[in-house]
Amino acid sequence: MSFVKENAVYPKMYRIKQHFANDKVADIKSEVYKQFDLIGLKDKIKPEAQIGITCGSRGINNIDKIIKAAVDYVKDNGGKPFIIPAMGSHGGATAEGQKHVCEKFGVSEEAMGCPIRSSMETVVLGKTKSGVEVHFDKNAYESDGVIVVNRVKRHTDFTAKNESGIVKMLSVGLGKQKGASAMHTNGLGKTIPETAEVILEKAPILGGLCIVENAHEETSVLKAVKRENFIEEDAKMLELSNSLVPSLPCRDIDILIVKEMGKQYSGTGMDTKVIGRMKIFGEVEPDYPSVKKLVALRLSNASYGNALGIGLADLTVKKLVDSIDYEAMYSNLVTTTFLERGRVPVHFNTEKESIDVAFATIGAVEHENARVMIIDNTLNIGTMLVSESIYSEIKDKVELLDENVSIEFDENGVLKN
Question: How many other C-beta atoms are found inside a 10 Å radius of the C-beta of residue 43?
Fold first, then answer.
């Protein structure tokens, strides 16, 4: 049975652009050096000291340049740097997989000029106040010092003072699979700072470097942090990041079409706080935006089959489902404990059929008047398509790029817009 509507009526669409703050760091290396000098990091690097520098699994702009600057800083001050993949259970929860993730971002041994020491082996540093066992990367623990580098931004699983950032990198990233699993099981919002407190007391942490990006994914702020100020400064940087993060330009949406989901856009494939869906038992769903039907059309090649977050959609396409590497997705999914996010939604043979079903299931709304939004992904929401009913509401807040756009498909039912 086919649910394609051959003579389907779609609303008139407008291509619009949102404008966001665009301050950015002009010279990455000089800013990294300046920040490290401000916290007196050079005085903590002893001659020939083995200094680990963390690299996570997120697609952070300029991450290769930032880590290379940190490597060079350690070298220039007499230390022997090495890279530590700090990404919990990502990379297939294997040492080689995590090294490959680093290399994918340009953080290779050749490019950085130092070794990458990748291992899933941890040491247990004790327990948190809540009784959670604290795991910590063995290579990092046995080093002479660790510099924690990470982007600070809101987390897709919870809301707290410390979400994604250097505190999470300490707790989850450097906790490897065992540590990440323990904290997801016991609630990230509480266990991340508690675990960090134990690590800061017992592990050789020299300092941190917070990365804050603007709405265009550009490096907006680099902020070095002293060991004793990790939790406090990470929280301040999160507040700054939240003030810069983009959002969809209206609250009520009948159909949100996400053309591509994937790990480089969000750890959950789609940013939960952009689409207004968490799907975590006990967590309050975001009030903004309110989406009746969400259609996810494609999975990025850079996700390597990990479709974590597909369960946040109402509809998808058979081609996306067929591309899922369930072993990779389940390795990530089970660690998080949020199994709902891995449930494959209703799916159809073509993008047109899936979108037509979305229109057929939004209730008593004339299709030409439906509130429809089409975005490339949840990370890049500066430019998008919106239907006439949405545009009439937001036209004073956005720039109009094209007012003559129609929802169209090619001969294979692939969305052309």
Answer: 9
What residues have CB less than 8 Å from 129, skipping those under 6 apart? 194
Main-chain dihedrals φ then ψ at residue 175, nearest 5 degrees: -80, -10
Please count the residues of the chain: 417
Please, are residues 210 and 237 in contact by the beta-carbon 8 Å criterion?
yes
What is the C-alpha to C-alpha distance for residues 61 and 366, in angstroms, rounded to an integer? Answer: 42
Q: Which amino acid is at 279?
A: K
Q: What is the pLDDT of residues 156-193, one digit of tens each?
A: 777 788 888 999 999 999 999 888 888 777 777 788 99
Give phi and psi for 89, each to the nearest 5: -100, 5
* Region label for 416, one of left (φ > 0), alpha (ψ between -120 and 50) or beta (otherwise): alpha
φ/ψ of 302, rounded to 5, equals: -70, -10
pLDDT band with cut points at 50, 70 and 90 for residue 59: confident
**129 touches 194 (CB < 8 A):** yes
Three-class SS string for 21-71? CCCCCCCHHHHHHHHHHHCCHHHHCCCCCEEEEEECCCCCCCHHHHHHHHH
Domain boundaries, the chain: 13-20+247-405, 28-244
Q: What is the pLDDT, as a whole number, of residue 332?
A: 85
pTM to 2 decimal places: 0.73
Question: Rounded to 5 degrees, what are φ and ψ at 96?
Answer: -65, -40
**Residues ≥6 apart with Cβ < 8 Å to 97:** 90, 91
Q: Look at domain 28-244 and name its CATH class.
A: alpha beta
User: Does the N-terminal peptide bond of residue 289 adopt cis geometry, omega within 30 degrees of 0?
Assistant: yes
Where helices occur in 326-408 by DSSP H, the ranges are 326-336, 351-360, 388-394
Whole-number Å distance between alpha carbons of 335 and 179: 10
What burial letters (b/e) apply to 12-36, b meaning 16+ CB within 10 Å? bbbbbebeeeeebbeebeebbbebb
d(C-alpha 317, C-alpha 357), whole Å:
11
